[in-house]
Specification:
Elements lengths: L1 E2 L8 E3 L5 E2 L16 E3 L5 H4 L5 E4 L8 E5 L10 E2 L2 E2 L7 H4 L3 E8 L2 E11 L8 E2 L11 H27 L3 E9 L6 E9 L9 H9 L2 H11 L2 H9 L5 E3 L1
Antiparallel strand pairs: 1-9, 2-10, 3-11, 4-6, 5-6, 7-8, 9-10, 12-13, 12-14
Length: 248
């Protein structure tokens, strides 16, 4: 059995019903959170995430497929929303972070990807004297119910995100863009590797395409994404005092 851990996780293993778990303290963040400048965002998160973060699209295969992410910082290993080990009060915490140390992972058996996903946990959080999430009969305890709900709903939401990104790519609505910025007292810098919706191209969609975007609820996400790009200015303001200058 081979399990590839999601970004930020170190080593994940299937969660056994007999396992003891060292549950994180309320408000505790995974190690990757303070040093991550972008976090995956799912379909249902667009409406809330767009209030705090720029939402952009990224690709790891030269534009064949895309993923949606919230930009948290303007440099590698920079999260401008985490201070002293805590996420800024009032800012939305993405589900990708909130689910930790749990996740759902696809398994490879004999070099073949299995369709079914398993609920897994960061191995370091297993402990013989840890909290039990299931009773002696293997039935879930009250503490497990909201965790399982988050994992299952998030996984379904990620599938909707993948479908949305595939449609945007198929309709050729995404364009690459680069952020060039400067802050007082610092050298100018460039942030690249991002894509955004080309709003002008929406005018040239045919009736069936436009209907599909509206029917699937994608159109609302597109405008949440476009409005969220103004948050790059807020990221710059977090980085340094004074009025930053930016152009995209």
């Amino acid at each position: 059995m081979q399990i590839t851990p999601p970004f930020g996780f170190k080593e994940v293993v299937p969660l056994q019903r007999t396992a003891g778990v060292r549950m994180p303290a309320p408000g505790a963040l995974p190690e990757f959170a303070p040093v991550t400048n972008a976090i995956p965002i799912s379909y249902s998160e667009f409406a809330v995430a767009c209030r705090d973060y720029p939402i952009v699209f990224t690709s790891n295969d030269e534009g064949k497929t895309f993923a949606a992410v919230a930009v948290l910082g303007l440099a590698r290993a920079e999260n401008l929303f985490v201070r002293d080990g805590h996420w800024q009060a009032g800012a939305y915490i993405p589900a990708y972070v909130r689910r930790y140390p749990f996740c759902m992972s696809r398994v490879r058996m004999n070099d073949v990807d299995q369709q079914q996903r398993l609920i897994c946990i960061e191995k370091a959080y297993l402990a013989d004297d840890g909290e039990k999430l299931f009773d002696a009969d293997g039935k879930p305890l009250a503490r497990w119910a909201p965790i399982e709900k988050l994992l299952n709903e998030y996984e379904v939401d990620l599938e909707r995100t993948r479908e949305m990104c595939a449609i945007l790519a198929d309709y050729a609505l995404l364009e690459p863009f680069t952020l060039q910025a400067s802050t007082p007292g610092n050298a100018p810098f460039t942030l690249s590797g991002m894509a955004r919706v080309d709003e002008k191209k929406l005018e040239f969609l045919n009736a069936a395409q436009m209907k599909n975007l509206i029917k699937k609820g994608i159109m609302g996400r597109l405008y949440a994404h476009l409005l969220s790009l103004e948050n790059f200015q807020r990221l710059l303001a977090r980085r340094a005092p004074g009025t930053p200058a930016a152009a995209a």
